[in-house]
Design goal:
This protein is of the alpha/beta class and 228 residues long. Helix content is 23%, strand content 26%. It has a 6-stranded mixed beta sheet with strand order 1-2-3-4-5-6, with helices on one face. It has a 6-stranded mixed beta sheet with strand order 7-8-9-10-13-14. The protein has a two-stranded antiparallel sheet with strand order 11-12. The chain starts with a strand and ends in an 11-residue tail after the last helix. This is ETHE1 dioxygenase. Pfam families: Lactamase_B (PF00753).
Amino acid sequence: QLFEKESSTYTYLLADKKTKEAVIIDPVLETVERDSRLVQQLELKLLYAVNTHVHADHVTGSSRLKDIFPGCKSVLSEASGGKADHYVDDGEELRFGNFALEVRKTPGHTNGCMTLVLSNAVAFTGDALLIRGCGRTDFQQGSAETLYYSVHNKIFTLPDDCLLYPGHDYTGQTVTTVEEEKKLNSRLTKPLPEFVELMNNLNLPYPKQIDRALPANLICGIQDTSNK
């Protein structure tokens, strides 16, 4: 579990210790040097750079990682609308060594959000479910009702002791469980009408990196340098 402080983003590096095959989830452009150094130190073969959705708060490091590790492929959900080498849909798997990440579509924050589940014991929820919270639903095809059903049907149906690792945290927390969130999540424990009303009235500020991040992330994190 790796952290990028400007956008409070968590990046996750998973690897099979025997085969050395690895996957990185939600890499950030500004921390590619750190992440690639770790991959090299551990002598891993990076197969996939996966984004849980097209981010609005940071530029993905996928394209840069592909330059450093030529065998690495970028991955997005089919519903994301972004550019990637490999697209995945609900129920598909991303294999690395003897392990596999199960793809569960969890739209609502964006159309292309997905949760990645490892052996029903660990799940990487992106921005769909945060610790005691959830991603906003007021832009990027967001829908509070869709997000509510996504979390309840695709994440809360995992075993209670399943560890949940979010895409962000703004208070220093690192991990939660299905049981904790079903009991303690301040938003998603509410009935659907109350949740929708709450999400529709958050009045959050415009993401400060969105004008830079969204165009780049739609094309795998490649930034336009033509005017520089």
